[in-house]
Amino acid sequence: MILPVIISGGAGTRLWPVSRETRPKPFMQVQGGMTLLQSTLARSAALPGVSDVIIVTNRDHHFQSQEQLEGMQAALNGAKVSFLLEPVGRNTTAAIAMAAFMAAERHGGGTLLLVLPADHLVEDRDAFLKAVAVAAPEAEKGSFVTFGIVPTAPETGYGYIQSSGAWKQGAAGAVKRFVEKPDLERAKSFLASGDYLWNSGMFCFRADGILAAIQRYAPDIYAKTQESWKRSAAAAKDPRAVQIESELFPQTPAISIDYAVMEKADNVKVVPSAIGWSDIGSWRSVSELTAPDAQGNRVVGQAILVDSRDNYVQGGDRLVAAVGVEGLIVVDTPDAVLIAHRDRTQDVKQVVDKLKQDGHESARLHRTVHRPWGTYTVLEEGRHYKMKRIVVKPRASLSLQMHEHRSEHWVVIEGVAEIVNGDKTFRLEHDQSTYIPAGHKHRLSNPGDTDLAIIEVQTGSYLGEDDIVRFDDIYGR
Fold this sequence. Notes:
The chain has 477 residues and is an alpha/beta fold. It contains 11 helices and 31 strands.
């Protein structure tokens, strides 16, 4: 059987301000209304005979990943999704090892793992299915198969795979070597040679085979992940959402599967693939998904461009206007605007690094922040006050909590709220309110079948999100 393993990690810092730490790149909508994670799930479930899918992701992204499954029943074709939840990211070798231990225990060592990044785009699904059909028999025989993307340009942003001879679509070839991202001249020579492909980071191999290879080439990773899986599986309360233990796994060396195994093994094959692939690694990559107008401008959302050419503008609720500019990337979000030259989009990461150094929340959070129980949106803030719109999903509840430095005023604007405020429990309806002094235990719940929305006004000497003491939480935070 083929078992897709979707690796959903990484911060996607080059795609700030849309991709942020608490809602990273896999949750970005790119085309057709689906997020990258949803698109990867649908593509995986379209493979013949797929009954299970594993998503390896951070614990903090579990609830958002679960939300991605809502409304996808038809696209999943009956496939069940299980989660491996990492306490910290330790790169792809550790993630793949944990998934392989899970697969071997539940389905047998001969299970074929199809490893897919959650944040890549594949536009030609039929070609993808054909490429997997070529890879699977090779993997069943014990080869470690990677998917090489047929190059369309001398790209310097990708690693390359050199095949042992001129590659041929529809057939797997032996891999001669893996090559790091080249400069432009080397990339041109790779393209001209006819035996180089882009390294996609997608793989297919047997569970027992990759575990044996990790044990051989990266024994420390094997030993730690083997014991980590035993502990995690034994403690798992939900077999569909296994929390990886927090003692051994964070000690595991953080090494990619390319370095740990693929570059060392002698039975590696590559399937040349023309599947409409992009790793969506920068805003320039994103811009190329939108057709240009006569002036070379690409626009998503509302924009007016005057005497301007070769720009990409992604707007939100506001109108974006540009006059007399050329070669720019403009991305507008409710709380941050990115303006970059299209040739410098790889350097957006430096903006995020600077925000983190300055302790700025926009490196981590959007104005609208997703939580297991719903969302909150910061409407306005200033010295000693902050206003939020809080939306609680039906039958959901915030934690029983307390704040040391702030008081809160709640006004219900939609739905019915169940409130714990100190030693009192009561309900509030539209246009009713309550005041929660600093130091009071309190909880907000939605007992209804529709969304609850409130306006929260915070006042106090410190209004940071870390001013919270939780006493009880149904989400285990």
